């Protein structure tokens, strides 16, 4: 296990928000985190990359408490794409992605061909090479999201943490970004709202509800109609499509078609 939490708790405003969560992701695998709004997904991700300190319990990286890992060492290992990351509006796309190289460069070291190669490769991977010199603030929401993913890729992390990376993305880019994440072969923890995408792209899924880990396992073990009903209050049926993928169909109480 590369990244793991052991009975982790964290609270704010007098409330326990992450409540005794123990989970682990295997090297090179994708662990999806699902759960209703406010169930603690972002809070848990922030604990995992030490943006917040656990109140109790331990987060480990290769078995070592991350509280004891140096800031630079942690930044070389682990990249985080936040849900609504903002960036200095004066920066260009390329400037933002270059920030991902910071942990790899010695203080005052000059920019190397290797740095440039990593930045270009990251921009290629998210399909934004043509926007290299565009100002970040002039990008659409989905393009900004892809630039932040490129910044994380330029960091060349071994562990990648993504908080709802498909927010703002059209369906083609949702599929391509999650496909890319899978192909990277890095250890990945990703919070997702779309249960079908979680089922398609995650090796394992953890389900958070009111800060507690309610279930964890293979998508077909976890994403059952009973669990979805319990956690999200929604009725579904699950069918296996011609391509062998499982599809979650939401049962809604109105008929499709034109309104009377
Ligand atoms: N610093 C804080 N102070 C007070 N409450 C907080 C703080 N951070 C998070 N919370 C609360 O903790 C709960 C969990 O928030 P979190 O953002 O982790 O949920 P989430 O599962 O990521 O939600 P969503 O799906 O809506 O993004 C929410 O009710 C939120 O208001």
UniProtKB/TrEMBL annotation:
Magnesium found in the keyword field: no
Highest taxon listed in the record's lineage: Bacteria
Residue ranges occupied by any ABC transporter domain in the UniProt entry: 3-235
Record's keyword terms, sorted: ATP-binding, Nucleotide-binding, Transport
GO-annotated molecular function: ATP binding; ATP hydrolysis activity
SUPFAM superfamilies: P-loop containing nucleoside triphosphate hydrolases
Stored InterPro entries: AAA+_ATPase (IPR003593), ABC_transporter-like_ATP-bd (IPR003439), P-loop_NTPase (IPR027417)
Family indicated by similarity: Belongs to the ABC transporter superfamily.
Protein name, per record: Iron complex transport system ATP-binding protein
